[in-house]
Amino acid sequence: METYNLQDDSYLKVLRPLVEAYQAIFEVGDRHIRSMGLTPAQFDVIAELWGTDGLTAVELSQSTLLAKASLTGIIDRLESKGLVERHAVPRDRRSMNVKLTKAGIALHRKCFPAQAKMMRPYFERALSQHDVNVLQKLLVRLRDSCRKR
Amino acid sequence: METYNLQDDSYLKVLRPLVEAYQAIFEVGDRHIRSMGLTPAQFDVIAELWGTDGLTAVELSQSTLLAKASLTGIIDRLESKGLVERHAVPRDRRSMNVKLTKAGIALHRKCFPAQAKMMRPYFERALSQHDVNVLQKLLVRLRDSCRKR
DNA sequence: TATTGTTATACTCTATAACTATA
DNA sequence: TATAGTTATAGAGTATAACAATA
Questions:
Q1: Which domain holds residue B49?
Q2: Chain B neighbors of A143, CB-CB under 8 A
């Protein structure tokens, strides 16, 4: 079988474990989100709304990188679950302010620490405090490099 | 704004940079895959088939974690693009052997080094050879921990 | 004219259940 | 009976284009 002569390439040495680690972690988190009856896209919107006083569809579109027409359905489903509300914006009657309800806030408050509590042991049994600091530093460097053109 | 008292949690210190690094890398890769007219799920299947002499639907189902009924459609679309072929298995007439065509092999061959060539500088300017080895080791440990129950 | 959000439409992913052909 | 794959069905995500209301 053909190879690409990339064995001495640092790129692949890091990329593959990074992808696999991400996927292993994500699988756990994903199951948790779905067990609450949410999809990842719906949870993304809740996370974006968290800590704000509401966002418009255009603002959500920018932060989630979704088309605004795609958001309509996602917001519909969150609204039908009672987790967000649409409010009129007095200043601009074209806009809607999308805001977490009390139930939405409660769900996030319940979900987030539960997720952390569940995931923490997987991290702690694998990494020392020193490992954590090193890993964080290297990942931030890599992230920033990939973000910059 | 409320906080969760998780500042001293190694979990978040690593998780956030890991997710952000993954997303920064994959924004580039995802665009590349879609520019070839493929979806991530389709490319996953191609990547699983690469280097094999063909796999059955059940084997693909296991490696991609998709329901076998979901794979039917994905394989259909790859087949209609001429990238994979279904072959009968003489030993067991219930099974299908799904295999990359020449075009599928060519696509992977074209895509993969192009991706590597594009991504490599982002890695190399951020990490020394020593960094690469450390990062790889820590990510593998984390991955394995998250995979194990 | 330009912008905000929705509708209309279409495609893909994904799952479960029922079915068929085989083993 | 059990297994491999497909079909049927359904829900969700995603995009583009067209539209109504408003700016």
A1: 10-147
A2: 17, 20-21, 24
Backbone region of residue A127 per phi and psi (left: phi > 0; alpha: psi in -120 to 50; beta: other values): beta
In order of A135, A137, B86, B125, B132, the CA distances from A130 in angstroms are 9, 11, 51, 24, 17
Radius of gyration of chain A (CA): 20
pLDDT digits (tens, 9 = 90+) for B83-137: 999 999 999 999 999 999 999 999 988 877 777 777 788 888 999 999 999 999 9
Over residues A87-100, the pLDDT tens digits come to 999 999 999 999 99
B1 touches strand C (CB under 7 A): no
Within 7 Å: CB of A69 and strand C? yes
Q: Is residue A1 part of a domain?
A: no
In the chain, the amino acid numbered A23 is Q
Whether B3 maps to a domain, the answer reads no
Asked if residues B55 and B97 have their Cβ atoms less than 8 Å apart, the reply is: yes
Rounded-to-integer distance, Cα A58 and Cα A19, Å:
31
- What CATH number has the domain bearing residue B79? 1.10.10.10
Query: Which nucleotide is closest to the Cα of B70 by its C1'?
Result: C14
